[in-house]
Amino acid sequence: MQKKAELYRGKAKTVYSTDNPDLLVLEFRNDTSALDGERIEQFDRKGMINNKFNHFIMSKLQQAGIPTQMEALLSDNESLVKKLEMVPVECVIRNRAAGSLVKRLGVEEGTVLNPPVFDLFLKDDARHDPMINESYCETFGWVSKPHLARMRELTYRANEVLSQLFADAGLILVDFKLEFGLFNGEVVLGDEFSPDGARLWDKTTLNKMDKDRYRQSLGGLIEAYEEVAVRLGVKLD
Predict the structure, then answer these.
(1) Is the full-model pTM beyond 0.85?
(2) Contact indicator for 150, 134 with CB cutoff of 8 Å
(3) Fewer beta carbons under 10 A from the terminal one: N or C of the chain?
(4) Distance from CA of residue 26 to its chain's centroid?
(5) pLDDT at 221
(6) What's the rounded Cα separation, in Å, for the pair 38 and 209?
(7) Which of 158, 159, 149 is nearest to 95 (CA)?
(8) Between the CA of residue 63 and those of 23, 67, 72, 210, what are the distances in Å?
(9) End-to-end alpha-carbon separation of the chain, Å?
């Protein structure tokens, strides 16, 4: 597959067109950001880890019947994916209290949330991804009611699959975000699933094994990412 023009450069990934109008190349860079991109650093191997991690997770979700944009792993840092019409809304599942939920509500970090909390956020870095609800989506036309219902259904299904997958690896899936797009009118999981967009804690020690290590200046970011990948069985080399 011929990689062609750069279409979009995000905080940690670059998207390229290909000679097939329905396919794109997703390149994972070594960049790591916080505070909506105000703080950025590079870490060796990070792009490779997240690329292979994402391919592994997307493959597991596809096996569980969740449609994803993943087509193939191309190289250490690149994957071939379907070109989606992305929905500007993030779906977040919270299994335990952490991050912004703790700040907003004063809930103790680590509190088990039963049933899990489902949140929606508008993708808008300039406005710090404000929280929204289904009414906003309908009024402003960000996503149709049937498509949003499908996104919600797939997010909860992904939570079931991934919570068990991480539990088997001795990890707690605290929370995560998913992004979706449309491909031939069908809702499809896009973007990525990696420790950049999920909170993962060690089941025994409750050590943080995700990007909170960077946000909170805990150190050991790449070591944590690699350990999570190895526990899951992701082939990094």
Answers:
(1) yes
(2) no
(3) C
(4) 14
(5) 96
(6) 22
(7) 159
(8) 21, 9, 14, 25
(9) 23
How many angstroms separate the CA atoms of 24 and 21, rounded? Answer: 8
Side chain identity at residue 170, one-letter code: G
CB neighbour class for 228 (10 Å; exposed up to 12, middle 13-18, buried from 19):
buried
- Residues with Cβ within 8 Å of residue 86, at least 6 apart in sequence: 179, 180, 181, 190, 191
Query: Alpha-carbon distance 160 to 134, whole Å?
Result: 22
**What's the token pair of residue 188?**
């499809």
In eight-state DSSP terms, residue 191 is S
Q: Which amino acid is at 177?
A: K
Q: Which residues contact 92 (CB under 8 A, 6 or more apart)?
A: 118, 119, 120, 121, 175, 176, 177, 178
CA distances from 34 to 40, 128, 215 (A): 7, 11, 6
Sequential pLDDT tens for the chain (237 residues) = 789 999 999 999 999 999 999 999 999 999 998 766 678 899 999 999 999 999 999 999 999 999 999 999 999 999 999 999 999 999 999 999 999 999 999 999 999 999 999 999 999 988 999 999 999 999 999 999 999 999 999 999 999 999 999 999 999 999 999 999 999 999 999 999 999 999 999 999 999 999 999 999 999 999 999 999 999 999 998
Residue recorded with tokens 């999981």: 189
The answer to whether 211 touches 196, Cβ cutoff 8 Å, is yes
pLDDT at 217: 94
